[in-house]
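Run log, item B.
One chain of 283 residues. Sequence copied directly from the ordering sheet:
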Amino acid sequence: MINKIAVIGAGTMGHGIAQVAAMAEYHVALYDIKQELIDRGIASIQANLAKGVEKGKVAPEVMDTALNRIKGTVDLSTAAHQAQLVIEAIPEKLELKAELFGKLEGLCDAGCIFASNTSSLSIEKIAAATSRGDRVIGMHFFNPVHIMKLLEIVVAPSTSEATLAAVREVGGRLGKDCIVVKDFPGFATSRLGVCLGLEAIRMVEQGVASAEDIDKAMTLGYAHPMGPLKLTDLVGLDVRLNIADYLHKELNSEVFKAPELMRSMVREGKLGKKSGQGFYKWD
């Protein structure tokens, strides 16, 4: 029975995961390397919940109770103590995730499940840093976590049925619709989403149409809730570039070769919403 979840990383995805876990009545330890990062993450959770209260979607007492269930810490062993599930949401680099799980190996109870929020990296390679491959799994959430309904569960060849069942149960309690995919580069969502986003960038690069009109073609013509370029801004051009380079290498497909426009925008610091400028201007 999972009662405590440790979330590693208090950034955009981490604090979102912590929020939905606390609202689902889990006890949550939110870890990051600096107190200011934890404070910023908890402030964002508070702002999200306050907006929900203002709109009548969250009861005030639910907000208060959820915030009380989240304990921030800069000590990894404190976060890991008595956690039955650890979800990492740190930068999208294989060596960082493997190193983290290697550290957690000696801090967590033997039965604790290790989950990665990676959007494209190999779960099996991350699991190789531990001796509990049967209890390592992917839990790919979507931004903003408290709104997006999908949870992509990624199973490696070594992931046990018991681990999958436990994580599906957690996903349901978090209010997510779960899909299960095999551990293959890009999984289902990133492989399709990045492919569409890269082609949209190539179209801008070639002068086919403006970013706004390309996005409108997909929102109005194909009923996508958001165009591929606005979505790229929201995710972050740097994040998507890293994923594209990884998929280009792993799948050996020119479909995933990043356009030069994308590389130049990243070099110039035009990363999307988080930098205030991408294909759109953001407040």
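Observations after the first pass:
- Strands lie at 4-8, 27-31, 70-73, 85-88, 113-116, 136-140, 150-155, 177-182.
- The mean pLDDT is 96.
Flagged for discussion on Thursday.
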